[in-house]
Amino acid sequence: MTSRLPIVFIILTVVIDAMGIGLIMPVMPDLIGEVQGGDIANAAIWGGLLTTAFAAMQFLFSPLIGNLSDRYGRRPILLTSLVIMTADYLVMATAGTIWLLLAGRIVGGITAATHSTASAFMADISAPEEKAKNFGLIGAGFGIGFVLGPVIGGLLASYGTRAPFYAAAALAAMNGFLGWLVLKETVTDQIRRPFTWARANPLGAFSAVTKMPGLTALLLVFFFYQVSSFVYPVTWPYFTTERFGWGPGMIGVSLAVFGVFFAIVQGVLVQPSIKHLGHRGTVIAGLSIEVIMLIFMGFVSSGMFALGFTPFAALAAIGVPALQGIMSRRIPDDAQGELQGVLASVTSVAMIFSPLLMTQTFAYFSAPNAPIYLPGAAFLLSAILMVVSLMIFIGRKRKPAAKVY
Fold first, then answer.
1. What is the pLDDT of residues 174-214, one digit of tens each?
2. Domain-located, residue 313
3. Which domain, by its residues, includes 397?
4. Residue 103 lies in a domain
5. Tens digits of per-residue pLDDT, 45-93?
C-alpha cells in the first residue's frame, strides 16, 4: 500500500487542480458582481478575462516548471506549488477588488501548470508499457475533479460566495501535507539535467522538443485534438439551453454523467485498448469515435438522445493517453518534464483559442438572422478539426514498430 501512496497523491493533485476550477465557477458571477458591480454581461466579460489570464499563465509557465522539475526534482516543485496554491485561494477568498481577483487567477494559472510535473512523475515511475495506463489514471483524476468541482461549489455557494475558495484552500493544504509525508523524489543524478532558459520558455521548449524525431506531427495531432474537444466545455451550457431547453440543473447533471464515464474510460479501459489495438490503433479508434460523436452532436435534436450517447462519447477518451504514451516513449528520460510542459502549453493555447472560435460559431448560427439555423455548428467545425488531427496522425512518418511500440 505504501508504494502506491505517491501515485494516490499525484492523482489527488490532478483532482484538486480540476476541482479548483469547477469549485469556484458557480459563484464567480455573483462574486464579480460583489467586487466590481454591474450586470451579468459585465460579469461575463470579466469572467472571460479571468479565464484567459489563467490559461495564458499555464501556457507561459508550463515549460518553465517542467524544466525546473527536470533539474530540481518533482517533489519540491509539486509541494511548493500546493503551498502557493493554498495561499492564492485564501487571497481570492478575501479579495475586495477585481484586480486582486485577476492577480489571484494569474497566480492560480502558474500553480496549476504543475500538471506537467505530475505527468512527468508518472513517466518516471512507469515502465514503457505502463505509461499510457498511468497517463490514463491522471485523466481519470481530472474527470473526477471535473464532476466533483461544480457540484461541491454549488452546494458551498449557499454559505456565501467566499466559501468555495476556503474549501479549495483547505483541499490544497491537506494534499500538500500528504505529499510531504509520502512523495519520494524520482529525479536521480542519472536523469537530472541542467536548467537553461532556452528550454524553459514556451518557444524554446517547443523548439527543443520538436527537434526530437517524430514529435512535430504528434504535437500537431495533440493541438488539433485539444482545440476540437474544447467545444464541449465552452459551448455545452449555451448549446443545450438553445437546442433542448435545458436549465442549469439538467446541464449540471449532463456534465456530471459525462465526467463519470470519462473517468471510468481513462482509469479502466485505456490499458485493455492498448493491449488489443496497440498504441497506434487506440489513438485512431479514439479520434474516430470523436469525429462520429461531434457530427452526431451537430445534428441531434433530442436532449435525452444526446444524454443516452454519453458513454459512447466518453469512450473516445482512450485516444489521448495512448498518444501521450507514444510521445513519452520517443524521448529520453531526462526530458520527460520538458515534454509534459510543452503538452500543457499546447493545451493552454487551445484553451485560449478554442473558446473564441467555438462560441462565435455557435452565436453566428444561433442568431435570429442566421443564414442557416444550426446551433450545433460548432460541433461540426470541431469534427472537421478532429478529422485533420486524425489524418495527420495516420499520414505521419513512423519509426519501426519495435522502437516505438
1. 989 988 998 888 887 776 777 666 666 666 656 666 666 67
2. yes
3. 2-182+199-404
4. yes
5. 676 677 777 878 877 787 788 778 888 888 999 999 999 999 999 998 9
Number of domains observed in the structure of the chain:
1
pTM over the 0.70 mark: no
- Dihedral sign for Cα atoms in the order 308, 310, 311, 313: positive
Query: Is the CB of residue 89 less than 8 Å from the CB of residue 81?
Result: no
Q: How many C-beta atoms lie closer than 10 Å to residue 42's C-beta?
A: 14
Q: Regarding predicted confidence, which is higher, 382 or 206?
A: 382
**200 near 64, Cβ under 8 Å?**
yes
pLDDT band at 254 (very low <50, low <70, confident <90, very high): confident
Nearest to 270 by CA among 315, 333, 217: 315
Contacts of 346 (CB under 8 A, 6+ apart): 219, 222, 223, 226
Asked whether residue 392 is domain-assigned, the answer is: yes
The reply to whether 124 falls in a domain is yes
CATH value at residue 166: 1.20.1250.20
